[in-house]
Design a protein that fits this description.
By secondary structure, the chain is mainly beta. It has 3 helices and 29 strands. The protein starts with a helix and ends with a strand. The relative contact order is 0.10.
């Protein structure tokens, strides 16, 4: 502060004292002059004492954003093209007709960014079918790997058994104007579970695909189906009841989709993994990194990582020994994000009966991770998501505050080193599985888009909202 800034308030104080003590002895003209002079000094002094409007913290803002998803919609996801254009995809249930008990369609819409507004364009169909496997946890979606390779995926029933379904892929080479005939990345032809796919583009233009594959469980699939009372579309206990019934375990497999649309290099990566937790995968300049929930013979279900470098595939390793022992699948997988060779990994655990979300960072493309930090201990529901954001990370998860029947979607912005920059929440979200996995995406100006499923008149409906951080 300058010496002038210190002198000016001092003069004001002296004049005020003069006016208070001796004002009654001054003539009216002198008294008025003293008051005017005091105000002239006080106005700039007060202006200096108060921050200007630009210095004031701007309040965080949530705004609901209309989207074209209709009643019966669920399973939202975001996809971002190379030019930053954002797309929302979702699964929509359409009214039954005489030919089909139910019909589902995978739809998408482009986010339109105006000077002061955001809106979605009209919805477009990718594919539809009456034999799809639709549920809250294993969601279809759209990924833009390049301007000439968009990949959509969904699940399609392969037999009458509840958990007999295949992953189906379709590609577009004209930015969604047309789509190829559907095909699968796996060729075992078994009426078993195939799902929870994750994917990324490699530097050579090919796409790495990773999924949970139940071909080894075929001998007990029918018994497992009878043991499960799940309603796959509305959540139920997908995976949790039949997880322990398999005499053989769920596996993690990979394949490569090349630039011409051919599938090759179908490989087994891990012969025993958790049955129905989402997988996550990213590619860095040094290695591809895959995260998933492992399953030991003793039913410890901690998060494992695999890497593919120039030397080939690594041995899976547990990122952090949480020691979560559970006989049922928690349907709560990890999330990954990468920036150069920096990698962030988030996951949910209930080890020691303490629900919490954990975040661990790697500076060497996933070869090692630092000790994790914890979020929402004792209240977390999980369902994590991660983005590289503002030279750091953006983490989201579902949390249920104490004594609350509802949940909140929490957002945490962290520096590259994991230091918390800010935290915010979106309230009024269902704590049940109907809300699905809330998805996040970031715009170039720092605004964050969130999508989730809300219950409306007894059925799901995709909701979207925009959060504007303070600048």
């Amino acid at each position: 502060m300058s010496s002038g800034a210190l002198i000016q308030p001092g003069l004001i104080l002296i004049l005020v004292q003069v006016l208070v003590r001796h004002g009654r002895y001054c003539c009216r003209g002198v008294f008025t002059a003293l008051i005017a002079f005091t105000i002239w000094l006080a106005v700039p002094a007060l202006a200096q004492a108060q921050p200007t409007a630009s210095d004031q913290p701007q309040p965080e803002r949530w705004q609901m954003l209309a989207n074209p998803a209709g009643p019966g919609s669920l399973a939202p996801r975001f996809a971002q093209a190379g030019d930053g254009t954002l797309y929302l995809s979702w699964l929509e249930k359409r009214p039954a007709d005489a030919a089909a008990a139910s019909l589902h369609a995978l739809q998408y819409a482009r986010l339109q960014t105006g000077t002061n507004s955001l809106s979605f364009a009209a919805a477009r169909d990718i594919a539809s079918g009456s034999d799809w496997f639709a549920n809250w946890a294993d969601t279809p979606g759209l990924t833009m790997h390049s301007a000439k390779l968009w990949v959509a995926h969904w699940l399609q029933k392969s037999a009458a058994s509840t958990y007999a379904y295949d992953i189906m892929l379709s590609v577009s080479r004209d930015q969604g104007a047309s789509w190829s005939a559907a095909f699968t990345p796996h060729h075992d032809n078994t009426p078993t579970e195939h799902g929870f796919i994750s994917q990324f583009a490699r530097a050579d233009g090919s796409v790495g695909l990773f999924w949970l594959d139940g071909r080894a469980t075929m001998a007990t699939t029918e018994a497992a189906t009878l043991a499960s009372a799940a309603n796959p579309e509305h959540g139920g206990t997908h995976g949790s009841a039949h997880a322990g019934a398999h005499s053989a375990a769920m596996t993690l497999r990979t394949a490569t989709l090349d630039a011409t649309g051919n599938i090759s290099q179908d490989e087994l990566l891990d012969e025993r993994v958790c049955d129905c937790c989402q997988t996550a995968a990213v590619s860095t300049p040094a290695a591809d990194v895959i995260a998933y929930r492992n399953r030991s013979a003793g039913e410890i279900r901690d998060i494992a990582v695999l890497r593919r470098s120039a030397q080939g595939w690594s041995t899976p390793y547990i990122v952090h020994a949480d020691g979560w022992r559970t006989a049922a699948c928690p349907v709560n997988g990890p999330a990954l994000a990468a920036s150069g060779e920096r990698v962030a990994l988030a996951w949910f655990t209930m080890a020691d009966d303490m629900p919490r979300v954990q975040l661990a960072l790697s500076a060497d493309a996933g070869a090692s991770f630092a000790a994790p930090q914890t979020f929402s201990a004792a209240t977390a529901l999980g369902r994590v998501q991660l983005l590289a954001y503002a030279d750091g990370w953006l983490l989201s998860w579902l949390d249920q505050p104490p004594d609350s029947g509802a949940a909140v979607i929490r957002l945490a912005s962290l520096s590259a080193a994991g230091d918390l920059r800010w935290q915010q929440q979106l309230s009024g979200v269902s704590a049940q599985r109907v809300s699905g996995i809330p998805r996040i995406a970031a715009l170039a100006d720092g605004r964050i888009i969130v999508a989730w499923t809300a219950a409306r008149n007894g059925q799901g409906m995709v909701q979207t909202a925009v959060f504007t951080p303070r600048q």
